[in-house]
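Subject: Predicted fold for Transposase, 107 residues

User T.R. writes:
Posting the sequence so we have a shared reference for the thread.
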Amino acid sequence: MRKSVKFSPEVWERAVRLVLEHRSEHPSQWAAIESIAPKIGCSSQTLLSWVRQQERDTGLRDGVTTAERERIKALEREVRELRQANEILRKASAYFAQAELDRRSKS
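User M.O. replies:
I've generated the structure tokens; pasting them so everyone works from the same file.
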């Protein structure tokens, strides 16, 4: 199994910029990507996904922008934490309600 390589944002931006700058020198965007990807050290498919994301971020392509994706991720994390907190509170409430019933039945 191949190990996933994490590229820095600087490499990501430089690679996308190279594709956009050298697009006119190639018959297609894919040809430009295939030419540039080995120089960056990533796969052509990876570079294509970076270019597509940049197009979404700049409004040239429909889809979820990077900022929106980060916001969704943060909201999902918050929802998960709130659900956990609600579950803890529900269990604590049931525990104390039972303790109160036990106390009343003994008196």
